[in-house]
Amino acid sequence: MEISNTLAVGLGLGTVFVGLICLVFICYIMSSVVKFFAKSERPAPAVPQAATPQVVPGAIANKGEFAAAVAVAIAEDLGTDVTGIRIKSIKRL
């Protein structure tokens, strides 16, 4: 007995779609399990954070190092040597 091409294609597509539907249900069940266990856990106590230094918007702490890092990044992107890059100004967008 020979199997026709349409039967083989139909069985293949049917198998794929049944597998995908099973995968969707497995994901749905797993998300329900994760939500259940996430609700049952107690939240961790809040840890007080250390005070961070206030940074003035627009101010760069160390302009020389920042300009060097920008020059190296631009040179790497352009595929040239960093000595060929000259940065005239740096402005925040």
Structure, described:
With 93 residues, the chain is mostly helical. It has two domains: 1-41; 58-88, no CATH class. The protein has helices spanning 5-40, 63-78. It is flat. The model has no long low-confidence stretch (mean pLDDT 84).
Short summary:
This protein has helices spanning 5-40, 63-78. The protein has 93 residues and is mostly helical. The radius of gyration is 30 Å and the shape is flat.
Topology:
Elements: H1 5-40, H2 63-78
Describe the structure using short key phrases:
single chain, 93 residues, mainly alpha, 2 domains, 2 helices, flat
Classification by helices and strands? mainly alpha
Mean pLDDT: 84
Rg on CA atoms, Å: 30 Å
Number of separate strands: 0
- Report the sheet-strand fraction: under 5%
What percentage of residues falls in helices of 4 or more residues?
Answer: 55-70%
